[in-house]
Specification:
The protein is α+β, with helices and mostly antiparallel strands. It has helices spanning about 15-20, 20-25, 60-75; strands at about 5, 30-35, 40-45, 80-90, 100-110, 110-120, 125-135. It is globular.
Amino acid sequence: MVGTVSQSTEQTPTEAMFCADEASRGLGIELMEHGEGTAVLRMTVTPAMVNGHRIAHGGFLFLLADTAFACACNSHGPVTVAAGADIVFVAPAREGDVLVARAEERARYGRSGIYDVSVRRGEELIAEFRGRSRSARDDAPRPATTSPAAPVDSGGGRGTGDDTARETPGTTTKESR
C-alpha cells in the first residue's frame, strides 16, 4: 500500500529513517509517498545546486535518487544500506526545476535487493538510477564505541597478531557475501 507520510505518532521504518536524514532534508528533499518497496520524493533545484555549466550538478541528482532508493529499500524494516548504485543522466535539470524521484523495488532475495529510480521533471525523464541493497543481519554485531583511552589499530591488524583478512573498498570477498 502506498500512502502519504503519516501524521500519526507511530512512524514507519521509512519515515523514521528519513526524519534522521539531515543531509537530504537539509537540501529540501521531501518524502511525498511511500509503501512496501516504493517511495516518491521531491526536490527543487536551488542556485547552490548548479554547476559551472548552469545545470544541476550530477551529485545532487544522484543524492535525490539515492534517497528515494534508501526510503524504498528500508520500507521492509531491517536496516538496509546501499551495496552499489549506478546512474544515467538523460537530460539536464536547471535552477528552479522541481524534480520527482520514484523508486520501485524490482527484486528482493535473501538480504539483497534491486531498486530502480526514475527522476523526472514533470513527464520528462532526467535520470535513471539502479541501486543494489543489502540488509543488516539480525545477528550482526553492532559497532562498538571506542573510548578515548583505547588504542586504535589503523594498520589493518599488522603487527598485532591479527591475521584476519581485510577487505579493500569496492571488492567482494566470501566473508562479505
